[in-house]
Amino acid sequence: MSVKIGSVVIDTFSKKEVIQKIHKSIQKRKPIQVVTPYSEFIVEAEYNLAFREALNSSEIRVPDGIGILWAGAYLARKWENLFLSLLGIVNRDIKLYSVFTEKISGSDLIYDVLDLAHQNKNRVYLLGGEGETPEKVKSYILQNYPRIHIVGTYSDKITLGDTTLYQKILDSQSEIVLIAMSYPKQEILGSQLKQYFIDHNHQGVIMCLGGTFDFLAGVRQRAPKWIQKLGLEWLYRLAQQPKRIRRIYKAIVEFTMLIKKYRVYIDKTKKYKV
After folding, report:
1. Partners of 160 in the beta sheet?
2. Predicted pLDDT of residue 169
3. Where are the domains of the chain?
4. Helices (H), strands (E): how many in the chain?
5. What is the reported pTM?
6. What are the DSSP E strand ranges found in the chain?
7. DSSP-assigned beta bridge partners for residue 126
8. Can you give the pLDDT at residue 274?
9. Is-contact 203 29, C-beta < 8 A?
């Protein structure tokens, strides 16, 4: 099942179901894109049509972030007012998990995907990252998942619509392409690459991971588990990268106001589920 958060459709799959779908697509040699929308994505998609289309045309769209879980429950009227719903985030109200049963971040999902690729000896291509990060990610994967075949890395200047790059990835015969770039570029590029695969009758799971390469490479540390469970990973990252303050504002204040607006619309029209 899927539900609409703002103008973005997000799936209610469990992580186990996501891995099964990825495995099935590889077996069937079917190109798919995996995206992990979080609150900033919903705000961006309101006015960025190409980004919105890239997200909504993806085959797997998982809820990344407590904000998405909150929005799903709030729009489904699990709380009657905004304040109580926000309080529900703080005290981890069970209602938070009434629409999306779990948060599935790319930084968590990647390990399950690598386990799958290791078991099946899949061919993996690494796209994106900065400086030495891609090589460090490659070393990490080869050390911890030795049955995976890294068939290429590319982290130079990447532009949308670069068919030379797309052909290079296709020629590598990769089965899984891991993209680590900033949004909305990575999702739009992933959508273009998927269409290129379709046009050339090529398989490939295209997975958009954002800053996950930094975690795999050890360039940055994720928040401790207890902070993640509290839904405060954004605060931990802000402490590490103060320049993210504009993004945090967008992810919290602008997102909350946008969801409140959609709640008013839903209350009037009685429309919610896709």
Report:
1. none
2. 96
3. 2-269
4. 14, 8
5. 0.90
6. 2-5, 8-11, 32-35, 60-61, 123-128, 149-154, 176-180, 205-208
7. 153, 178
8. 42
9. yes
